[in-house]
TrEMBL record:
This protein's name: Aminopeptidase NAALADL1
Coiled-coil annotated residue ranges, if any: none
Chain's gene name: NAALADL1
Native source organism of the sequence: Callithrix jacchus (White-tufted-ear marmoset)
Requisite cofactors: Zn(2+)
Occurrences of domain Peptidase M28 (ranges): 307-515
Domain Transferrin receptor-like dimerisation: from-to ranges: 575-694
Database matches in Gene3D superfamilies: 3.50.30.30, Transferrin receptor-like, dimerisation domain, Zn peptidases
Domain of life: Eukaryota
Length: 699
């Protein structure tokens, strides 16, 4: 790939530069003063903040969401060319821009045989049909490029689903309940295009693949030389036909079901009591012995999907990368998901590219902008990239910044990330004015909506943890790279919606954003400014602004949860938390000592090599929490602090999960041995982390 060649040239230049520095060190008299090292330029930062333009972001979004662009479609490839054109522009482009392809396995509905859901009467006649497409409310929901609602990777089949439930589940119908997405509202007058709520015909598309990455090449990039699994050996696909429908059709089915009442937590807002079946009500809209026939005709296809990378080469440390990414593909128009993020990406790269081309600025470290392909099918583009460049990225990446959906709504910033990135985000947001009335900073506005009490800092904004919902997943879980995800979101005291209501539907359009989510695009601009400030601080600061001591709070909270909620149970099985207590204390002490060494160096005139070594300690800390054998039942998850937690105790995930499985087993069982193994895994990770933070000369 060309980006490696460009950075390779930079590394060669850095090697000659390093030789020159060494020779010069001995050639220059000791009393001669050295030039100040390149550091964050506050004037450049202010210039970038002032040039990020809301109107330009709005026009970017209009163009990006003009047509549907599902992964590998002609319009998706058109956007690849648009990105390349922007990043190669002679006046505002980057140092280089290249596209790379991966041949990956995707899933699409058949154009010749659409997926169907019918109610079939006792004589076999069709008495009811669910909609095959969403209602064309704005003229944008029709057309050949609007992909039919479907569940990607669900297998084909035509089972009859209601009476079969007596014995086993034959098929699954999925819908979005108004209680979950619309605050209970469901009538056409209350929903889009009259409000931001999902209209009755809206259907949420999505991938039903259990893992991420190309299904045929786990842990290998989907390039011609890689081994590919036989389809019969691929795991992670749904076992039975699955089809999403709108809540209008779901109402007609659910409100006619017979049987016992569903649990209270299963009830919704369709205007009836939900029942479990089997069969239909004797006095309902359908004959009691009717069947639901689900016909799914999805098919698997090998397609070429493109990633696009744009690079600004670092002036001093070109072999250290700050990555900023967003996926490009959508299910339909995708104005919010993902084009709100791509619109910000294009504006941010334009402003930085303009400064670069004018010769005004070049970052200390390299900046890599990425537009990932086929994210909606399972984070495929980003995962293939991390697989192909695993070693290089692990050795050289400072941090990964993800901006997927940049604006869910316009109330406040929302940040998810690993603890070391907290400080750089706080520093950035304190200096940027929040959109809307008043004169609050983004930080001060954020703390009104999401906050926590820190024993170190007092009341601060709270960061969410990173799951696997976007392209940060392979970077944090697989590579162990400090990561964050930035977005503006809604006031959760005013809505219970789990996400913006038109998510993954044909109603996620430019006008939806322009009218309901962010009129004026001030929140898009705020995200661009936040991301831009974070990028500049990470790429230009002499000392990396990553605070590893902030991990101590997380580790202490995990430890306290284990002691309070699992301590007595573990004692019954003669399992001690003592080694874990000692490991947390050791990490805390080494993190504090490293902080003191940083402060001492910052107050003096440090040798750049000293700072480089210290920065590498900060950069590499996250890698020490990886153990690829910690969770053999999981794929790609190897971070012992952030792997999926299925246990109820909010502690180290491996420990929580193992205790949950062992609770009802006999003493001395394999399940309790696994509990002990998980404690050892965490202890060794923390010991390794503490060792990484000690002075480099201390072997």
């Amino acid at each position: 790939m060309q980006w490696t060649k460009v950075l390779g040239l930079g590394l060669g230049a850095a090697a000659f530069l390093g030789l020159g520095i060494i020779l010069g060190h001995f050639a220059i008299p000791k009393e001669a003063s050295s030039p100040a090292p390149q550091d964050l330029d506050l004037q450049i930062l202010e210039t970038v903040m002032g040039q990020l333009n809301a109107s330009r972001i709005r026009e970017n979004l209009r163009e990006l969401s003009r047509e549907p662009h599902v992964a590998t479609s002609p319009r998706d490839e058109d956007l690849v060319q648009l990105l390349l054109q922007r990043w190669r522009d002679p006046e505002s482009g980057l140092d280089s821009a290249e596209a790379s392809n991966y041949e990956v396995l995707l899933s699409f509905p058949s154009q010749e045989q659409p997926n169907l859901v019918h109610v079939v009467g006792p004589t076999g006649d069709i008495i009811y049909s669910c909609r095959q497409t969403e209602e064309n409310l704005t003229g944008e929901q029709g057309g050949p490029d609007v992909v039919q609602p479907y569940a990607a990777y669900a297998p084909p089949g035509s089972p009859q689903a209601v009476n079969a439930a007596k014995h086993r589940v034959a098929a699954v119908l999925v819908y979005t309940d108004p209680a979950d997405i619309n605050d209970g509202l469901s009538s056409p007058s209350e929903t889009f295009p009259n409000s931001w709520y999902l209209p009755p015909s809206g259907v949420e598309r999505g991938s039903y693949y259990e893992y991420f990455g190309d299904p045929l090449t786990p842990y290998l990039p989907a390039i011609p030389s890689s081994f590919r699994l036989d389809l019969a050996n691929v795991s992670g696909f749904p076992p039975i036909p699955t089809q999403p429908i709108g809540f209008q059709d779901a109402r007609d089915l659910l409100c006619n079901l017979d049987g016992t009442l569903a649990p209270t937590t299963w009830q919704g807002a369709l205007g009836c009591s939900y029942r479990l079946g089997p069969g239909f009500l004797p006095n309902g809209d359908f004959p009691a012995d009717s069947q639901v026939n689900v016909s799914v005709h999805n098919r698997l296809e090998l397609r070429n999907s493109s990633n696009v990378l744009g690079i600004i080469r670092g002036a001093v440390e070109p072999d250290r990368y700050v990555l900023y990414g967003n996926h490009r593909d959508s299910w339909v128009h995708g104005a919010v998901d993902p084009s709100s993020g791509t619109a910000v990406l294009l504006e941010l790269s334009r402003v930085l590219g303009t400064l670069l081309k004018k010769g005004t600025w070049r970052p200390r470290r390299s900046i890599v902008f990425a537009s990932w392909g086929a994210e909606e099918f399972g984070l495929i583009g980003s995962t293939e990239f991390t697989e192909e460049f695993f070693n290089k990225l692990q050795e050289r990446t400072v941090a990964y910044i993800n901006v997927d959906i940049s604006v869910f709504a316009n109330a406040t910033l929302r940040v998810q990330g690993t603890p070391p990135v907290q400080s750089v985000v706080f520093s950035a947001t304190k200096e940027i004015r929040s959109p809307g009335p008043g004169n609050l900073s983004i930080y001060d506005n954020w703390i009104r909506y999401f906050n926590r009490s820190s024993p170190v800092y007092g009341l601060v904004p709270s960061l969410g943890s990173l799951g696997a919902g976007s392209d940060y997943a392979p970077f944090i879980h697989f590579l162990g790279i400090s990561s964050m995800d930035l977005a503006y979101t809604y006031d959760r005291s005013k809505t219970s919606a789990r996400i913006y209501p038109t998510y993954h539907t044909a109603f996620d359009t430019f006008d939806y954003v322009d009218k309901f989510l962010d009129p004026g695009f001030g929140s898009h601009q705020a995200v661009a400014q936040t991301a831009g400030s974070v990028i500049l601080r990470l790429s230009d600061s002499f000392f990396l602004p990553l605070n590893v001591s902030d991990y101590s709070e997380t580790l202490l909270s995990f430890l306290q949860a284990a002691q309070q909620d699992l301590g007595a149970l573990l004692e019954q099985h003669s399992i001690s938390l003592g080694p874990l207590v000692a490991a947390v204390e050791k990490f805390d002490a080494e993190a504090a000592a490293l902080g003191e060494r940083i402060s001492t160096l910052q107050n003096g005139s440090p040798d750049p090599l000293q700072v480089r070594m210290l920065n590498d300690q900060l950069m590499l800390l996250e890698r020490t929490f990886l153990n690829p054998r910690a969770f053999p039942e999981e794929r790609y998850y190897s971070h012992v602090l952030w792997a999926p937690r299925t246990g109820s105790v909010a502690t180290f995930p491996g420990l929580s999960n193992a205790c949950s499985r062992a609770r009802d087993t006999a003493p001395g069982s394999e399940a309790w041995a696994e509990v002990q193994r998980q404690i050892s895994i965490v202890v060794m990770a923390l010991e390794g982390a503490a060792a990484t933070l000690r002075p480099v000369a201390d072997l």
